[in-house]
Each structure stands twice: as C-alpha cells, then as structure tokens.
C-alpha cells in the first residue's frame, strides 16, 4: 500500500506528487492519501520523495537507520519505471 501525505502547509505541493498518484491509480497500485504517522514513516519498508528536479527518489536512510533493507525497494523500482515511461510518452511527446 502506497501512503501519501495530504497536501498541507507542511509540504510543497507539486506536479510530480500528482503524477505519482495518477500512475498508482492507473496501474492498480493500492494507495491512500492521508496523514502518515511518524511511526508509519519510521517503520516503512520503502520511503520515497518526489520533486520536479529529482523526479521520484528512494530514501534508503532515515536518521542514520536503514529504511527496509537499505536499498531502493521493488515498489519504488516499479514506480520509477512507470514515471520514466510517462515522461517518454507524455512529456517528451509534447516537446
């Protein structure tokens, strides 16, 4: 299950965030947008961040501790592939 924080004053909303959620829905990846607790964050198998410049980026260390096994996870790898495919089809097609 992909958990994404609600857009609020604690985050800078962006297009990449929206695209990630659209790709999750399009490909049937279960996801939920809601407040994510600190405990959920610290115990997550995978953490990602997204931005226009970094696209989708795995977070493998949090406060000096490995996230999951300390390497990018399989769900990240799938989302990264979907994002690159999206970029090639949609973003570059309009250029």
Describe this structure in words.
This protein is α+β, with helices and mostly antiparallel strands. It has a single domain, classed as Alpha-Beta Barrel (D-amino Acid Aminotransferase, Chain A, domain 2). It is built from 3 helices and 6 strands, in the order βαβαββββα. It has a two-stranded parallel sheet with strand order 1-2. The protein has a two-stranded antiparallel ribbon with strand order 3-4. It has a two-stranded antiparallel ribbon with strand order 5-6. Helix 1 crosses helix 3. The longest helix is centred in the C-terminal third of the chain and has 18 residues, at 74-91. The model has no long low-confidence stretch (mean pLDDT 94).
Which structural traits does this protein have?
globular; 37% helix; 3 helices; 95 residues; D-amino Acid Aminotransferase, Chain A, domain 2; alpha+beta
Tally of separate helices: 3
Strand content: 15-25%
Distance between the termini: 34 Å
| Rounded radius of gyration (Å) | 14 Å
Compact overview of the structure:
The chain has helices spanning 15-26, 38-42, 74-91; strands at 2-4, 31-33, 47-51, 55-59, 61-62, 65-66.
Q: How are the SSEs placed, and which strands pair?
A:
Layout: E1 2-4, H1 15-26, E2 31-33, H2 38-42, E3 47-51, E4 55-59, E5 61-62, E6 65-66, H3 74-91
Parallel strand pairs: 1-2
Antiparallel strand pairs: 3-4, 5-6
Helix pairs in contact: 1-3
């Amino acid at each position: 299950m992909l958990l994404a924080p609600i857009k609020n004053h604690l985050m800078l909303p962006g297009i990449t965030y929206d695209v990630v959620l659209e790709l999750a829905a399009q490909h049937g990846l279960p996801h939920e947008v809601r407040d994510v607790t600190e405990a959920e964050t610290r115990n997550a198998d995978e953490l990602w961040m997204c931005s226009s410049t970094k696209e989708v980026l795995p977070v493998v260390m949090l406060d000096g501790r490995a996230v999951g096994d300390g390497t990018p996870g399989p769900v990240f790898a799938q989302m990264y592939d979907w994002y690159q495919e999206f970029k090639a089809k949609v973003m570059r097609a309009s250029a």
